[in-house]
Amino acid sequence: MNQPVLLPDSETRQALLERASELVDAMFSDQPDWKVIDTTLTSDAVRERIAGFDYSEPRAPQEVLEQTFALLRDCGLHVGHPGYFGLFNPTPSFMGVIADLLVAAFNPQMGAWHHHPAGVEIERQMVLYFARAFGLPDTAYGHFTSGGSEANLTAVNVALARMYPGLAKHGLRALDKQPVMFISEEAHHSLDKVAQQLGLGLDAVIRVPVQGPEAGMDPAALEQALNQARADGLDPFLVVATAGTTNAGIIDPLRQVGAICRLKNLHFHVDGAWGGSLVLSDKYRGLLGGIEYADSLILDAHKLLSSPMGAGIFLSADKAWQAAAFDVEPAYVPRSKAEGMDNYRLSSQFSRRFIGLKLFMTLAAAGKQGMAETIDTQVELGELLGQRLQEDGWRVVNGARLGLVCFENPDVDARDEGERARYYEAIARHVVDGGESWISATQTVGRPVLRACITSYRTREAHLDRLVSNLREARAKI
After folding, report:
1. How far apart (Å, rounded) are the C-alpha atoms in residues 280 and 369?
2. Do residues 158 and 325 touch, judged by C-beta distance below 8 A?
């Protein structure tokens, strides 16, 4: 029988795997010496390199491997670089890389228990492990997602199903009042997308002021906003607190917000995509005080837990709420004997990738203590970076929270907001163009700042010193 075109012979397979292994190993060794990104790249140059693949004739697999690796190496932002101080993209754990290889090879379908019992049970153990770590009740359950955006979408779906029992059948038009949700002004914009996708509309998202660049959502302002919404004939159903905002690492006062939700019978959701991983740290776990009162919460393993992209986790305090939001019984999918373990009945996806294996293998190999030490080191390096920046004349505005530092130059305080924003964008561009470090400009609490975040377990003090030096040079030239 002829060899299938999609499956090379054993000798070719071994040669390809060996070469891929050599390339990936060399990448881990050499990446710290690369530029974080080549900012001279143009779209035309990248497209010209890819245009050589016109698919008219087959190519040797070895050639495809070499050229594809070169494209990824030469034409991308290297988020695994220890000089990348960016947007929550980690250096992937090596065990996570191995896990993704195994997942791609076995290609398990995780929608139903009977499709891959081992995979579903591994993810079940992971979900329950984190539910217990957060202090959720015994009824809690959840599932893995592609990331925080999907997890937040799931959370709002679950909140709607819980708070409006007839919604799944009758839809939003059957409700007497407009449902509205409350988030902080620093909350992630995935929640705006969620409101659009679910038909709630952006007007249903009410943003609550925060208390400052080092403090989170103002509980008094939340209560006032809730009362005003009810007076306006609206129907509050959900409050979202953030444990580690994207801009500044701010943690909302979870205990106080949770208490308000319980008093007013609202669904309390915590977006812990960034800061939720602190649950594994004995040193910093206390920053999440009150998260145990969450009706639902999320965290991203592809952030502080260093899983390869993408790996989110959604948890709810009661599995029944998930079933109310998502349960269906199609004839073409046999019901599994393991009651409640069919993911397609508890989430929006039917076909599901085995996302949890990379976290399982990473945590199994490192142990809780190893993961905690990794998290603690990144947070402490952020605090050290804040100190180094202040010593060099910068002002840290967010207390260097969760390894994330927002800072500004006091010398430009007198300039108007637009001019300061352009100044910080120019500083960031100068640093990035140098190729040794990557930072960004942003705004927190309406304030233009520079932002640097420790996202790599490979970052060391020397990389902090290099960043401070890059910033000093940029400040002198701009």
Report:
1. 8
2. yes
Q: Which residues contact 402 (CB under 8 A, 6 or more apart)?
A: 244, 249, 251, 274, 275, 278, 287, 379, 382
pLDDT of residue 339: 63
| SS (HEC) of the chain | CCCCCCCCCHHHHHHHHHHHHHHHHHHHHHHHHCCCCCCCCCHHHHHHHHHCCCCCCCCCHHHHHHHHHHHHHHCCCCCCCCCECCCCCCCCCHHHHHHHHHHHHHCCCCCCHHHCHHHHHHHHHHHHHHHHHCCCCCCCEEEEECCHHHHHHHHHHHHHHHHCCCHHHHCHHHCCCCEEEEEECCCCCHHHHHHHHCCCCHHHEEEECEEECCEEECHHHHHHHHHHHHHCCCEEEEEEEEECCCCCCCECCHHHHHHHHHHHCCEEEEECCCHHHHHHCCCCHHHHCCHHHCCEEEEECCCCCCCCCCCEEEEECCHHHHHHHHCCCCCCCCCCCCCCCCHHHCCCCCCCCCCCHHHHHHHHHHHHHHHHHHHHHHHHHHHHHHHHHHHCCCEECCCCECCEEEEECHHHCCCCHHHHHHHHHHHHHHHHHCCCCECEEEEECCEEEEEEECCCCCCCHHHHHHHHHHHHHHHHHC
**Residue 316 contacts residue 280 (beta carbons within 8 Å):** no
Structure tokens at 382: 């952020």
- Which residues of the chain have a pLDDT value below 70? 1, 337-340
Parallel, antiparallel or unpaired: strands 267-271 and 296-300: parallel
What angle separates helix 190-197 from helix 148-163, to the nearest 10 degrees? 50
* Cα–Cα distance measured from residue 61 to residue 439, given in angstroms and rounded to the nearest whole number: 37
Please, are residues 315 and 131 in contact by the beta-carbon 8 Å criterion? yes
The structure tokens listed for 109 are: 């379908």
Class of domain 102-204+234-361: alpha beta
Whole-angstrom distance, CA of residue 77 vs CA of residue 80: 9
Among 321, 309, 275, smallest CA distance to 156 is for 321
pTM beyond cutoff 0.85: yes
